[in-house]
Amino acid sequence: MSETVVVPVLYRVEEAAEAMRISRSVIYELIRSDRLRTVKVGRSRRVPVDALAECVALLAEEAA
User: Fold this and answer.
1) How many other C-beta atoms can be found within 10 angstroms of the C-beta atom of residue 37?
2) pLDDT digits (tens, 9 = 90+) for 18-51
3) Domain boundaries, the chain
4) How far apart (Å, rounded) are the C-alpha atoms in residues 3 and 27?
5) Distances, alpha carbon 50 to alpha carbons 2, 3, 10, 31, 56, in Å
6) In what residue span(s) does the Helix-turn-helix domain sit (predicted)?
7) Are strands 39-41 and 10-12 parallel, antiparallel or unpaired?
8) Rg (Cα) of the chain, in Å, rounded?
9) Three state DSSP letters for the chain
C-alpha cells in the first residue's frame, strides 16, 4: 500500500521556528514587527510556507 505524502502549506509557530532554525521568541518578534506574515485559523496563528521565504528575503535586504 502506498502512503500519501501531504506537503504542509501552513506551519505552527513552533514548526516555522524549527524550519528557520531560530527560537519561538524570535518568530514572535518577526510577527510583531510585520516582517513575518501569518494567518489566523480560529484562535491559532499559522505561518504560510511561502511567508518564510519572504521573511528571509526581507531580512537579507535589511542586512545589505
Assistant:
1) 15
2) 999 999 999 999 999 999 999 999 999 999 999 9
3) 10-63
4) 32
5) 28, 25, 9, 14, 10
6) 10-54
7) unpaired
8) 13
9) CCCCCCCCCEEEHHHHHHHHCCCHHHHHHHHHCCCCCCEEECCEEEEEHHHHHHHHHHHHHHHC
